Amino acid sequence: MSATSRLKELRWHLRRGRKKVARIVGFNRRRRRAIKRLEAELETRAMFDSVTISEIPKSAGAVAGYTGGSWPTYWDLVKEFPHAFVLDIAVASSYDARCLDIESGDATVAEAIPWLRRQHARGVKRPRLYIAVSGASQLLALLDDAGYRQGRDYLLWTAHWTFEPHLCGPHSCGALQSTTADATQWTDQALGRNLDQSLVSPEFIG
User: Are residues 89 and 173 in the same domain?
Assistant: First the structure.
């Protein structure tokens, strides 16, 4: 092979190499942009709750707190986060709020229906129901039998600490097979703190 032919071949390989590099750079740029969009979406759809209000980041766009019980944080959250969506949580079915905490020591699954009926009567269109994902199927079946439909009559907030942001459902964790939760509390150690974080649907904080 002559020196001229060898030079042409090297130039061809160089051009090809540059095109490959350009494609890789372009792919990485698109990937970085996609990651940034995903991070921004997760941030806007994050809701925090903690009995220690100082653990909640000041930039939080959505927070939740109890109206009664041992840690009544709701009214302090309203003052501390005037520009955020602040969800009030009832720790017992005797309290009125936009969310009922169904877990040991608080409300029971059986109390969900009369509580929902009372919230509807006072004008809350879609009250939230918080429950560990292990008990969600029982709750959903009870509500379904009573004629209450998720999304229309109430919103479901599950607790499932996988430490990965997700909405419980057949296409994520698989812990629910017939529906997808409207919000899922996926960690109790957000930002390395004593802090719960939930991924929420736009409807949940709407």
Answer: yes
